[in-house]
Amino acid sequence: xxxxxxxxxxxxxxxxxxxxxxxxxxxxxxxxxxxxxxxxxxxxxxxxxxxxxxxxxxxxxxxxxxxxxxxxxxxxxxxxxxxxxxxxxxxxxxxxxxxxxxxxxxxxxxxxxxxxxxxxxxxxxxxxxxxxxxxxxxxxxxxxxxxxxxxxxxxxxxxxxxxxxxxxxxxxxxxxxxxxxxxxxxxxxxxxxxxxxxxxxxxxxxxxxxxxxxxxxxxxxxxxxxxxxxxxxxxxxxxxxxxxxxxxxxxxxxxxxxxxxxxxxxxxxxxxxxxxxxxxxxxxxxxxxxxxxxxxxxxxxxxxxxxxxxxxxxxxxxxxxxxxxxxxxxxxxxxxxxxxxxxxxxxxxxxxxxxxxxxxxxxxxxxxxxxxxxxxxxxxxxxxxxxxxxxxxxxxxxxxxxxxxxxxxxxxxxxxxxxxxxxxxxxxxxxxxxxxxxxxxxxxxxxxxxxxxxxxxxxxxxxxxxxxxxxxxxxxxxxxxxxxxxxxxxxxxxxxxxxxxxxxxxxxxxxxxxxxxxxxxxxxxxxxxxxxxxxxxxxxxxxxxxxxxxxxxxxxxxxxxxxxxxxxxxxxxxxxxxxxxxxxxxxxxxxxxxxxxxxxxxxxxxxxxxxxxxxxxxxxxxxxxxxxxxxxxxxxxxx
Length: 639
Known about the structure:
The chain is of the alpha+beta class. It folds into three domains: 2-253, Rhopdopsin 7-helix transmembrane proteins, CATH 1.20.1070.10; 298-347 and 359-478, Phosphatidylinositol Phosphate Kinase II Beta; 482-637, 2-Layer Sandwich (Phosphatidylinositol Phosphate Kinase Iibeta, Chain: A, domain 2). It is built from 21 helices and twelve strands. The strands form two sheets. It has a seven-stranded antiparallel sheet with strand order 1-2-6-7-5-4-3. Strands 9-8-10-12-11 form a five-stranded mixed sheet. Helix 2 (40-65) runs antiparallel to helix 3 (74-95), helix 7 (192-224) runs antiparallel to helix 8 and helix 19 runs antiparallel to helix 21 (623-637). The chain is globular and about 90 Å long. It holds the Pfam family PIP5K. GO terms for molecular function: 1-phosphatidylinositol-4-phosphate 5-kinase activity; ATP binding. It comes from Paramecium pentaurelia. This is PIPK domain-containing protein. The chain crosses the membrane at residues 6-29, 41-65, 85-102, 122-143, 163-183, 204-222.
């Protein structure tokens, strides 16, 4: 009778837990903030708790139906054993969130750019599933085959899961202590606001760490003491409540309960509250913004803003030094080191008392081929005054707020200068290494002999170590849409690769893709024959150059503006005017620093073998067929 009573209590606790987790899942559906990494982790763990609740429901229902697990009903006994196993795997998955936990803390403290990429989240989930398969499922099957007894195999699995759980919590605890030490040690290198947000975030992580500790302790105790005669129902009640505690902690965040009130009781809410929530989701700066926004968002927004300002200032300072210093012809690398004051970013320093030693942050900047890039800048009418107006912090306040991650899968981070002249983009180390090892000389030679090349120009390559952040690799590029942005008229942007697989953009995306272009009224692009031939000839020369140096996956970026052609600068060779249709076109080849490496080969193999896509339709192809298909596509759309 006691077992049945505890089972009913457990079902009640599980119901509350699942309802709370379900509310978080609703937030994941309706809220933009909960739909992006790293907030997706909260929704993912809530789904695991719901799954755990379903298994506990079945398990306790079996206890109520057959409290003694009699041998007469072997089917129920086998089902009970199977559910026990599924509960164990699910709880082990939940308790082994140390993979997500470590990356969550590392990103928010160390490299905030990655925090905006959902691909990171998907990769971590895949990694977690693989580790679960290797550490739990495969050993369990081996043990089961060795003993030929289900009960022995289950006991072996329980012991193995317990050790894994204890190991995961030890890793998390040690990492947490290390983060606290590093944060305290480097507090004078950060702005006061950023330090406060980081401290709040790390404190918040302690509560999640405590929940993980409780799960590990309860489940490990349950596993190591599991016997045929004992079911440890009271521990299952505790495990059921873990999901409730986890959910309550996140649902009590100001943004969360205001958003839920908006969803369920919108008619009862004041319009000002609803507007405040919508402003937060749109990234607008309001007075209530910092009060309601989740601590994750506060930390990332502040950290990214400060990091982008520091990177832009570092690039600007290095460029000015390049203009002033005597540079050696084809000098491969030059290193600049200078002190950085956070007060220059309009952030106050940490100063808790008069005895604090306020340190200057040191920036280390490596600039590659400085003489060649400086010459390229001068050839394109850049001087120190223009660079100052383009990259100085005081002229880019609005631009810093708009700095964001690319909509593509690369996860690159973009900064557009407020006067539309330059773009600063983060890149992977491997891309820069491939470009610098032999290809860059050919790149300069191509631009030298093709003055009207449509390849988007790179004006600088930098490796920057800024304060306590991860080393960033950046390229400074021209903005090929500068003139169109100056027109202040609406224009359509198409990113074209000549492929059809995954080349359809959503309705809310500003940059359209191949399939959208084919269905639009802009297809084909009709130009005077002489201009059309010139454009095709130049695109052919550029694509063959990229093919010869081993690049693929580049895009033709086309801007189309239907306005009076008299407003455009006719001297700019990137722009083509069709006076008959009163339309302006802009052409530029972008994203061309991608070689056909083993990652791209794996992607091609996956899409052709697993997803059954035709190789000729994929954007991921080797340089030779990619170039051929790209040029054929251009020939079909420009007439």
